[in-house]
Amino acid sequence: MTLILSKSDVMKLLDMKDCIGAVEKAFSEMSNGTAILPLRTVIKPEGGLSLYMPAYLRQSGALACKVVTVYKDNPSKFGLPTTIGKVLLQSPETGDVTCIMDGGFLTAVRTGAASGVATRYLARNEKNMTAGVFGAGVQAKMQLWAMNEVRDLKRAFVYDISSEAMEKFISEMTVKLKMEVRKAASPEEILDCDIICTATSSAVPLFDGSKLREGTHINGIGSHTPNARELDSETIKRSLLVGDSLEACINEAGDIMIPLSENDITKEHFYAELGDIVSGKKPGRTNERQITLFKSNGLAIQDAATAQIVYLKAVETGIGTRVEI
Q1: 272-295: b or e for each residue (b if 16 or more CB lie within 10 Å)?
Q2: Residues 309, 284: one domain?
Q3: Which of 28, 81, 222, 303 is 20–30 Å from 115 (CA)?
Q4: Residue 113 — pLDDT band, cuts 50, 70, 90?
Q5: What angle do CA 15, 310, 42 make, to 5 degrees?
Q6: Residue 188 structural domain
């Protein structure tokens, strides 16, 4: 019997704190060689894009594949979202598919969780810190949720080109996190924060990196194509650069690829993969004045680890529908 979990089921089961713990362990497994992470397979059917992202975490016993499709005409032609995701979880012992679950909320939370792990190891750890978020969409909300889980935040600021989106962000996150959330008057106001996150769809840099304060930690989330970047070369040059994957950073992330191509940095500027810091192979922040940067591209190990904890909770609580396939 295969367990089917809807989006609402996953939302009931998945908590950010638990997800951060699972993703942290997944990065450690990646560093220690107990994770298998094949390259993402991309197929381009007529009218869309289909991505297949498999991973296996040997220690955690998590074997999964996430299928993500992007069809721009879905909303107008079929009344469906542009992006659709599902995760198939398998038993490592038998290979059978034990669970099929919606991947939308799961992807959003696991992306935030990666930044939560990075913030835990790279941001300064003080009382009453401030966080600033560029962007006010779903992922921006997940980022603030994750940062609040690992640091003592007294206040957060949000900046977005849409005033309506900012108001919605403030309304939701003030209630959810029980903290003060304010609208930033300008991008420069975000730069006064201790922790900064970029979670937008911008293809051009969001701020001048020369204006960053010493001691700032940055989570770069939004841009994930070679020709788009949220962070300028000055930000990259001034930062201790940590990525989820070196390979992804130098082959997929415009934030890194563009300064590399313009000879503003070399590959040696890349300090470490997050897993090497989690596993203790390299230290994270070494002084309070460092500017630290985590560049996230999104890895299938995050999906596998998160799907595993969702499934185990579903079995424990009796949530979901079992079907014979």
Answers
A1: bbbbbbbeeeeebbeeeebbbbbb
A2: no
A3: 81
A4: very high
A5: 105
A6: 114-298
d(CA 128, CA 147): 13
CATH number reported for the structural domain that contains residue 90 in this entry? 3.30.1780.10
Nearest to 159 by CA among 175, 144, 149: 144
Query: How buried is 67 (Cβ within 10 angstroms: 0-12 exposed, 13-18 middle, 19+ buried)?
Result: middle
**Phi and psi torsions of 225, nearest 5°:** -125, 155
This prediction's pTM: 0.95
Q: How far apart are CA 77 and CA 73, in angstroms?
A: 6
Rounded CA gap, 235 and 212, in Å? Answer: 8
**Would you give the distance in Å from CA 134 to the centre of its chain?**
14
Q: Based on the domain organization, do 231 and 103 belong to the same domain? A: no
- Beta strands at 49-57 and 35-36: parallel, antiparallel or unpaired: antiparallel
Q: What's the domain count of the chain? A: 2
User: What residues act catalytically?
Assistant: 66
Q: What single-letter DSSP state applies at residue 320? A: S
Residue 245 confidence class, pLDDT cut points 50, 70, 90: very high
Kindly state whether residues 85 and 61 are assigned to the same domain: yes
Within a 10 A sphere around the Cβ of 132, how many other Cβ atoms?
Answer: 26
* SS3 category, 236: helix
Instruction: Share the mean pLDDT of the chain.
Output: 96
